[in-house]
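Late entry, evening session. Most of the bench is empty. Finally got around to the prediction I had been postponing all week. Sequence below, unchanged from the version circulated by S.P.
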Amino acid sequence: MSSRIQNQLAALGRLGILLAAYVAVILGSLLFAFILRFDFQVPSYYWERLWNSAWWILLLKLGLLAAFGQFKTLLTYFSLPDAKRIGGALLIAALIELLVWFFFQGYGVIPRGVIVSDMVISFLALAGLRTSLRLYRERMSDADTSLSGGGKRRRTAILGAGSSGAALLRDIQSRQGLGLSVVCFIDDDRAKVGSTLHGKPVVGPHRRLASIAQEFDLHKVVIAMPNAKPPVVKQLVARINELGLDHDILPSVPQLLHRQVTVSHLRRVDPEDLLGREPVSLDEEGITRLVRGAVVMITGAGGSIGSELCRQIVAQNPSKLVLVERSEPALFAIEQELRQSHQHVELVSCAFNVCDEDQMDRLFAATRPALVFHAAAHKHVPLMEHQPGEALRNNVVGTEVVARLAARSGAKKFVLISTDKAVNPTSVMGATKRVAEMVVEEYQGEPGNTCAFTAVRFGNVLGSSGSVVPIFRRQIAAGGPLTVTHPDVTRFFMSIPEAVGLILQSALQARGGEIFVLDMGEPVKIADLARQMIELSGFVPDEDVKITYTGLRPGEKLYEEPIHAMENVEATIHPKVRLLRNNRGQGQGGLVAELVSTHRDLTADAARVRAWLSAKIPEYQRGGVV
């Protein structure tokens, strides 16, 4: 017998059991309500009314319960929405029964008192049945988990007795095989201390964590405080690590927005939780107006920034989202994610190289995007130092091709994703990104141009491909050492969702010719970040895990600068987005024409590429250290 047939038979079996249980409860409730109405002394002639009415009342209730989706649910899973649906079905059934009584009361219909009593009793009975079965399932799940883990379940405290903590506890209790046993809540709210939440005690504030851990023999603490400020999280993690306990955290409110709190959202505390950055407030209505119903193209759609652009843009319901990505695995991953989460948005996925003008020309002609976000680029500094021709081809020629086609096809806005490494560049990567900005500036000044060309400049993003955070994680997992280039090297950091949110905010404000700079806060010492990550992993820096210094690599700086001395800074309507006015003129005339005519010969010679970049960017310091 095939697995498909077996699954169908199992489903039919579950439906049969559920139907039998509901039939028994409905008839039993009706009988009890009837007997109750007559104080357990039913006149003989009323029994006939009961038997005449029972069959159509049963069919009516079963039909309404089916309409409310109660035969599609699993019998042992029951929650408040299920209770509301059962209540709605039984209320409508009672109203119909009352109408029948009103019009046909002389034809042997049961008394109206029985109808009302039956509605209440049958609701309590069905809800009671489902609740009992859920409790039985959870108890059996606990027993199975205990047996599968050899009886050694990890005793866990949830830090935060709010709605997120309560939802998390329910999800933990409903999951089999987690090996977690929540024994208490920890909360600073004095009004909650001494009470219980879903049967678990709220035992005290987090300053008593040491004594609570000893009293309850804790193995793990889950921080369920999505609104907690980074300094508070940092203090909590340090205390948990001191006690030798394992820990997880729920993401922040912006990351949980529109998503139900579940165990699957639990993760280790990341450096971005400790950055000390306030949540960014965006003009959500304006961004929605910009994107909704529009055809949007994203190049580099499979990268760290590109994929997050896809996620945030698809949530605004564009009419079509065009994904351009040369890496087939990365393109497949983001396409599958978007198809599962937003099936109503049309996706066009193209494994194209943005430098392939013929392919890109056909794509622009076919899709006619109104908004183009150009995130495709080579970004790794040391790699591009050895391949300057490839850096120029992808970062500059690719930008020129996409910008020219965007203008030709009637796009309204073109947004270049740039970097702070484009300011006083010491690397080929930074220099090519600065030239890409100049290309965008030149297209903005073209006679008759109707597309608003703009660039958004920001620093490193935490957790992106090739950034220090995943590298440090791998090095910690291997027992160290963590490699840092220089004790004094600093970088600006943002989280990926924050950076992309501000890119969209900049796109909303763009009128053409601007370079927007995102407020990245204070620079972070990479050595300090390394120590933080070691501590977050429960180790002691320089004792359990060493930090070694390898020296700056070719093209790297000690620190980055988001603004050039010749650029004037202006405030915008958003406090975390600043506007730069370039005092060096709108690009260099003829740059685009020169690129189109010479790039094939130019990119084949590394020395010529560096010389050409130096000629275009006087402040370019080859391999210098700033």
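Two things to note before I forget:
The chain has three domains: 3-145, 153-269, 289-466+491-544+553-616.
The CA atoms of residues 423 and 564 lie 6 Å apart.
Will write this up properly tomorrow.
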